[in-house]
Design goal:
Helices cover about 30% and strands about 40% of the residues. By secondary structure, it is of the alpha+beta class.
Length: about 140
């Protein structure tokens, strides 16, 4: 009985992974490409497909340019599994990507790789984290 009680205590304290968060920074991008809202929208749609994610709603915004520099773009996809966000800064040749997904079927790393392949940065930094909770009895 004591052994079963201890086993339940240990099991109740095991961290359960609820989601996967992948994100990164991309440098040395083509400024014309990262100012192109149509190209970037197709890129995010393709990333959702590549990662086996299901889009519920897509919000796109093209920001005004300044001093002759094209304005950036933000694409945010609300997905059944959570979200995909892409933000660009033409003139700085820079973009950020943030993908968070829950569930065992989605593959956020593949969604990120799709964006990486399409934008083809000269340099990038990739980060990932398992997101979850610690169940405490």
């Amino acid at each position: 009985m004591v052994r079963q009680t201890r086993a339940r205590e240990v099991q109740s304290q095991i961290r359960k992974i609820l989601g996967k968060h992948v994100y990164g920074n991309m440098y040395g991008l083509n400024d014309a490409q990262i100012a192109n809202i149509d190209f970037l929208t197709k890129t995010v749609l393709g990333s959702a497909k590549a990662g086996n994610m299901h889009i519920i709603e897509l919000v796109t915004k093209k920001f005004p340019g300044y001093n002759g520099i094209a304005g950036g773009v933000s694409i945010i996809a609300l997905i059944e599994e959570s979200h995909i966000a892409l933000h660009t800064w033409p003139g700085s040749s820079y973009a950020t990507v943030d993908i968070y997904s829950c569930g065992e079927r989605s593959k956020p790393e593949l969604a990120y790789k799709h964006i990486l392949d399409r934008l083809a940065p000269k340099k990038h930094k990739f980060f990932s984290a398992d997101r979850g909770n610690m169940t405490v009895s």
